[in-house]
Specification:
With about 325 residues, the chain is an alpha/beta fold. About 45% of the residues lie in helices and about 15% in strands. The chain has 13 helices and 10 strands. It has a 5-stranded mixed β-sheet, with helices on both faces. A 5-stranded mixed β-sheet has the order 7-6-8-5-9, sandwiched between helices. Helix 2 packs across helix 10, helix 8 packs across helix 12 and helix 11 packs across helix 12. The longest helix has 30 residues. It is globular.
């Protein structure tokens, strides 16, 4: 017919319309899926970015475990429990990975609560001294300076417990608050302190370089203990209960993953800690046994912590430990 468009032109126009319609539908489906699978941000702070104890957050994030729980983690490190508690009080983080002795900050008014016991015996810490031979035994350290992270921290409590067990009361050592593991090691090497309590990774690095030796490991100092606690701010507890439950679910799934996947866990941990494969593998072997699988707060361990608060004169009387934590966000199974 005169004026009729060629068949190919009509066909091309139809194809273009179909393609445009398909693209519009795909974009709509993508937008809907993005809303359904959008992740919630959880700000996670830890009491020492160089510590293996806190790397499960990094490992779970890296392998996608927390993402499957609908979470995206923003992870920050702080120099000890006191600074971590300050960050939580300032609402700079939602979840804090700290020490069991850090529960005392709640008694003193910190607006947080323990939501899971994450590690038991204090396998993570070691007492190191210089290689110059000035300190050969724990007795040689009596009345001398020992570097710890902060006042009221696990490092402080452990040195007080060593002092008590040796019959020296609670002032057998002069404790010096220094902060991060690296800062404590630097103070030891410079002679500012005569020994320091650091995590096992820093201790192994220190000895590997020939700078000193491990004088004591703390796994035998106390058996019933809660080495680490996962905290949540009161604000997060009120506003993000589902996210906190999802975080703990992801955390314990990560611990299970780490037990079954040493090589992958070590590879991620060493990138976070700045250690080599050999050191990180040794840390993994020493510390995996301390991680708890269910997050429950053991009554015997809580009693030890309660006693320590009074013995160290941090508190005038034993607190009601049941008010310092909740198990409401733990996985039901």
């Amino acid at each position: 017919m005169p004026g009729a468009k060629p068949f190919s032109a009509i066909k091309r126009k139809t194809w273009m319309a179909a393609i445009n319609a398909t693209m519009t539908m795909l974009l709509l489906v993508f937008a809907l899926n993005t809303r359904v699978f959008a992740t919630e941000l959880i700000r996670v702070g830890n009491a020492g970015r160089e510590s293996f104890s806190f790397t499960p957050a990094n490992i779970g994030k890296e392998v996608g475990i927390f993402a499957r729980s609908g979470l995206d983690l923003e992870i920050s490190g702080f120099g000890g429990d006191a600074k971590l508690q300050q960050a939580m009080a300032a609402d700079a983080v939602d979840v804090g990975l700290g020490s069991g002795p850090g529960l005392v900050f709640i008694v003193k008014g910190s607006p947080v609560k323990g939501i899971a016991a994450m590690a038991g015996p204090p396998l993570i810490f070691a007492l190191v001294v210089r290689a110059d031979g000035s300190v050969k035994t724990i007795d040689d350290l009596k009345s001398r300076k020992v570097g710890i992270s902060t006042v009221g921290s696990a490092t402080a409590w452990l040195m007080n417990e060593v002092s008590r067990q040796h019959g020296w009361g609670f002032d057998g050592f002069t404790q010096v608050s220094i902060g991060e593991n690296s800062a404590r090691i630097a103070a030891l090497k410079s002679g500012a302190v005569d020994g320091c309590v650091v995590d096992i990774g820093s201790a192994l690095n220190f000895t590997e370089r020939g700078d000193g030796k491990i004088l004591m490991r703390f796994g035998d100092v106390v058996k019933d203990f809660i080495m680490h606690v996962i905290f949540a701010t009161d604000t997060a507890i009120a506003a993000k209960p589902a996210q906190l439950s999802a975080f703990l679910k992801g955390w314990f799934e990560t611990i299970a993953f780490m037990r079954e996947n040493k090589a992958k866990s070590v590879a991620i941990a060493q990138s976070v800690m700045g250690t080599d494969e050999k050191i990180t593998s040794g840390i993994y072997d020493e510390l995996m046994p301390m991680f708890l699988d269910n997050g429950r707060f053991d009554p015997k361990a809580l009693a030890v912590l309660s006693r320590s608060f009074v013995e160290m004169k941090i508190l005038p009387s034993a607190p009601d430990m049941s008010k310092l934590y909740t198990e409401a966000f733990l996985p039901k199974n």
